[in-house]
């Protein structure tokens, strides 16, 4: 996420929070939406940042409209299985995609045969939040900070490996950028989501993992994992003792973002209703506390702002991937 886009989105979030209580609550249009249960398709297994946010938003939809919301976790193929399922779904607002920048902005440059086109096949609803990535290690590993890892990796090229939630994830791209900028040779071990990689680094089967903060913040706080650095420019209130990568590599930043989209051609009234309810959820004190305690920065946006954000991020990561010569595994 670029600094200018983040400032604009934070301004939008502040404006939303200034609304009177209940002002952003959506009212069902005369069409009676939703008329049946809603499915939120998530491109990762349960337990990661995307799943956490999707479930919070889904619970809000149920409370507001009285319809059940099912979270369908569908990992695989860099999130393309889940995204393509929603792209082909009926444009009536009952099947939605809660995805990340990887699926909505990165995959188009990383893979040669993406089965959907974000601009053509989706109607942006709202940007929900952003998350920095943490580089973590098993406590038995000889790393306390990023500088320690860089020194070790340079001394032993190709001998270290790191786990990520999957090829094309922001975490993967962040680590590949680190390798380029620091001149490192570390082997990538992609997983289908965060949970499997976290399990293996906790068991010291993989020495390192780079992953979104919500997936590991609890393990860092309890000492089960050691955080070497965070990919935001600033320290996180959730883990204030963990330094940014930028302390070692000035200017380094690679945060992930998450949002809700509907199939293209979904009626504008339904898109607006969904967006209003998402933004109302992000004003809820309980939701904000839950997100922020896990290192999630609460955002919020209009459909138009989210569309512009996706377009800007698509351009940004296309340039990064080309310059770094990053390939999907």
UniProtKB/TrEMBL annotation:
InterPro entries associated with the record: BUG, Bug_dom1, TAT_signal
Signal peptide boundaries: 1-23
Presence of keyword GTP-binding: no
Entry keywords, A to Z: Signal
Top-rank taxon: Bacteria
Pfam families, alphabetized: TctC
Family: Belongs to the UPF0065 (bug) family.
Name of the molecule in the record: Tripartite tricarboxylate transporter substrate binding protein
UniProt lineage: Bacteria, Pseudomonadati, Pseudomonadota, Betaproteobacteria, Burkholderiales
């Amino acid at each position: 996420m670029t600094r200018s886009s983040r400032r604009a989105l934070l301004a939008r979030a502040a404006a939303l929070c200034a609304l009177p209580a209940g002002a952003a609550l959506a009212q069902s249009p005369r069409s009676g939406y939703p008329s049946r249960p809603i499915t939120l398709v998530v491109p990762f297994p349960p337990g990661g940042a995307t799943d956490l946010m999707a479930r919070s938003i889904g619970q809000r939809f149920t409370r507001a409209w009285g319809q059940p919301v099912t979270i369908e976790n569908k990992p695989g193929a860099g999130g393309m299985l889940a995204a393509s399922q929603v792209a082909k779904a009926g444009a009536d607002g009952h099947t939605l995609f809660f995805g990340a920048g990887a699926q909505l902005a990165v995959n188009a440059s990383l893979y040669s045969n993406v089965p959907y086109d974000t601009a053509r096949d989706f109607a942006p609803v709202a940007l929900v939040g952003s998350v920095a990535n943490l580089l973590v290690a098993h406590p038995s590993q000889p790393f306390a900070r990023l500088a320690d890892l860089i020194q070790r990796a340079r001394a032993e090229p190709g001998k270290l490996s790191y786990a990520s939630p999957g090829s094309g994830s922001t975490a993967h791209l962040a680590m590949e950028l680190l390798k380029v900028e620091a001149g490192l040779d570390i082997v990538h071990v992609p997983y289908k989501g965060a949970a499997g990689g976290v399990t293996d680094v906790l068991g010291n089967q993989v020495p390192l993992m780079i992953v979104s903060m919500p997936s590991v913040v609890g393990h860092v706080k309890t000492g089960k994992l050691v955080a070497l650095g965070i990919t935001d420019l600033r320290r996180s209130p959730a883990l204030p003792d963990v330094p940014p990568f930028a302390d070692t590599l000035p200017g380094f930043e690679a945060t992930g973002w998450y949002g809700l989209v509907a199939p293209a051609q979904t009626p504008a009234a339904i898109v607006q209703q969904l967006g209003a309810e998402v933004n109302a959820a992000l004003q809820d004190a309980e939701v904000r506390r839950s997100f922020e305690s896990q290192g999630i920065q609460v955002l919020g946006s209009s459909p138009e702002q989210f569309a512009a954000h996706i377009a800007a991020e698509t351009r940004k990561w296309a340039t990064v991937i080309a310059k770094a010569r990053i390939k999907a595994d």
